[in-house]
Amino acid sequence: MALGAGLDTFAYRQPRWASGATLFEVDHPASQRHKRQRLATAAVEIPPNLRFVGCDLDAEAPGGALRASGFVASEPAFVSMLGVTMYLAPGAVDAVFAWVASLARGGELVFTWSRPPAPGDEDALAEHAAAIGEPWRTRLTPDQMQDRFAERGFRRWEFVPVALLAERYFRDRTDGLPAPRKASIVRVEI
Description:
This protein is an alpha/beta fold. Helices cover about 30% and strands about 15% of the residues. Strands 4-5-7-6 form a four-stranded mixed sheet. Strands 1-2-3 form a three-stranded parallel sheet. Strand 2, helix 1 (about 30-40) and strand 3 form a beta-alpha-beta unit. The protein is globular, with a radius of gyration of 17 Å.
């Protein structure tokens, strides 16, 4: 499942192994309307195993909306939340973590997060986001992240080094997309 799915394209380019899974795209209803209009305009077919789940993550944890869409919380799930945590209020991030921690053991959460800037550091990306009305509201240190994981009872977590991402996923790109510099990726076992 993708929390804060935005314009994520995994469901539309899914590998064969994913066709037997139910994919959930969870996002704000207005964002989903925009995405669905773009998909329709581009004549992109909606895969039969995809469920759109409207949920304002800043106002509520996704559990109720997902249950109404057929999600079974007693089965292990893979949850991604890429490019989302920094835009949510701190309480909303904590609510999502609490909900994920309530899911069946054997699942996994992978998400990006942003650290607070160092004193005197310029953060042009965060400043640009704020200027267009999307301020970064939650930025946490690694210690703060680990405290949240421990409080929620997560078993293990791993901070994925940016150098590893750059080498593994960005080295051979030809589109000019750089590896993230202001966000970090974490993998958490449920």
